[in-house]
Hints:
Layout: H1 3-10, E1 56-60, H2 67-77, E2 81-86, H3 94-99, E3 110-114, H4 145-152, E4 155-158, H5 169-190, E5 199-203, E6 217-218, H6 231-245, E7 250-253, E8 257-259, H7 271-285, H8 287-291, E9 296-300, E10 306-307, E11 309-311, H9 312-324, E12 331-333, E13 341-342, H10 343-354, E14 359-363, H11 374-387, E15 397-398, H12 401-407, H13 411-415, H14 421-437
Parallel strand pairs: 1-2, 1-4, 2-3, 4-5, 5-7, 6-15, 7-12, 8-11, 9-14
Antiparallel strand pairs: 10-13
Helix pairs in contact: 2-9, 5-6, 7-10, 7-11, 10-14
Amino acid sequence: MSRDDSKRSNSIEKRHQTRLGGREESALSVSDIPDGMRPAPKKPSGRNPGPKRGTNVFLTGGTGFVGDLLIRKYLERTDCNLWVLSRPVGGVPANERILDRIDPREHHRIRILEGDLALAIDEDADDSEFSQGFTDTPGKEPFDPYMEMMEVVDEVFHNASYLGLRQDAGERQKCMDVNFEGTKRLINLMSTFKQEVRALFYTSTAFVHGRITEPDEFGEDDALTNGWLNPYEESKWKAEELIRNAGYPYRIFRPGMIAREPGVDILSSHTMYGVADVLESGYKSDRTSQSHGPIHIRVKGIADAAHNIILRSELVDMIFDIRASSHEMNHIYNTLNATNTRLEDVLYSILYNLNPKMTYEFVPDLDQSQGLNHMEALLERAVYPLYGGYLFKKSPEFRMNNVIEALGKDYLTDRITKIDRRLLTALMEDYFRTKRSI
């Protein structure tokens, strides 16, 4: 490892021991508050020149791939108290899904609100699905966390979302319910807060650029004009519009593909990890081909299709550095790597870890008359319907002017690790090793 690589490795978050079962959550919903019951939101007058950081933070999506680390960073880098929205899953109570991951010494700074912003609640039902009283101390009366939260929260971090990539009506409806309507419900909820909301942070996606063709660059303030590849991109763009028009001081973060930093035991089923899982399954089941020598795989796409990949820990650090900066509010930030990564390097990193002797080629389409091996057949069924639109195009060159203004021109080169083939291969080796151990 070079001296520069060693320097960058030291910036990657150290191994933590908490088991993080489950995958990215689509959880977000409190009841829609009828229009007539909503007080006017407390909005600052005039232009907000910089962040007034809050002391009580309402956070959604805390059980997901990024949200888990957002909670850790709030506890590590701020003195804020956190109000985290969660829901029970698979018999695991909402509070355990959050608190079991956190150092018990920090539990006093976290309140769990049980609910799901993705679901509309009957107005004739109880006040809220997550307003049930509870207490952390035996013998004390339970309190209503929802009512207490309304009194004190002055910062919101909206991170929860649903990653729906299939082009069908059901998938689009779910994306809109979670990503768009859920954001609308959140803004409605914020109108009931008693304190001035000093900052509203939102995790969007760089893929809101959609079907961009010209120009080959996409800036933070560029408008979309050519539609979307899937309902996820559409719903996130429309949620951004809600955030921008809500009247609160905001910052919107747009990450691309997110990679696990080495030495953590949280897994993801999205993007390159989902593809890795499919290829691994096909390789393990392709006994016939393996008995006749190394497998050759044909992949639909172009080798130079580029994707932007950033390490999860470095993404969250960038977000918190922007949060703490004096850059004026009401901006969008392309929280990305300064350099795109080629699709061929992603594919190589996966296949090399399955079998270093495996060969591959990129093709515009598969000749079905030649038959498909197990890996090709699984890609056809499980990958192309989701990611096919991203395999034949180059990502735009993302302009990051707002990031540079907030953090300085050297931040991207000094703090963000370039993801090349060698590092990708090592990261994928760590991913497969983690899968075997948990």
